[in-house]
Amino acid sequence: MRILALDDEFVALTKLTALLSKYGKYDAAANSSQALDLFDDAIFNFQPNNLITIDIELPGINGVDTQKKVREWEKRNNIQLEKGVKVMMMSAAEVSASTFPNLNEGCEEFIPKPFNGHSIAGVLNRFGLISD
């Protein structure tokens, strides 16, 4: 499995990549521009991501807009949502449809922070990326 993890908080990104490292190769990004470059590089190198984890509250391009850019790329390249990369959004803030109205467009799963290994494994299992 190939994973892209995006979080601007160093501690959260370090914890997340430590949890994800047992499931496959990962790239880590501290901002959306870097993450989108890594997403493009993975595709260019014929190693597309199976999973992208995105913190919602990011400086510059927020997480919701980042996942929209990923979905726009997939749409331009005729990749249907169910065949595209799985997107898991996360946040320590209270998230609602009023604060992020487009959250559910292209995001398959949301988990609150702080997360743990069990919650991450549960999402990967629901995505069909791992089995029990």
Overall number of domains: 1
Strand % is 15-25%
Total of helices: 4
Shape: globular
Could you name the CATH class? Alpha Beta
Q: What is the count of β-strands? A: 5
H/E topology pattern: EHEHEHEEH
Instruction: List unreliable stretches of 5+ residues.
Output: none
Strands of the widest sheet, in order across it, are 2-1-3-4-5
* The named CATH superfamily: Response regulator
Roughly how many Å apart are the termini? 16 Å
CATH architecture: 3-Layer(aba) Sandwich
Description:
It is a single chain. The model has no long low-confidence stretch (mean pLDDT 90). This protein has one domain: Response regulator (Rossmann fold), CATH 3.40.50.2300. It is an alpha/beta fold. Helix content is 36%, strand content 19%. The chain contains four helices and five strands, in the order βαβαβαββα. 33% of the residues are buried. A five-stranded parallel beta sheet has the order 2-1-3-4-5, with helices on both faces.
Task: List the keywords.
5 strands; 132 residues; single chain; Rossmann fold; alpha/beta; 5-stranded parallel beta sheet; 4 helices
Concise overview:
The protein is α/β, with parallel strands linked by helices and 132 residues long.
Question: Secondary-structure map with pairings?
Answer:
Elements: E1 2-6, H1 10-20, E2 25-29, H2 32-44, E3 51-55, H3 63-76, E4 86-91, E5 109-112, H4 117-126
Parallel strand pairs: 1-2, 1-3, 3-4, 4-5
Helix pairs in contact: 2-3
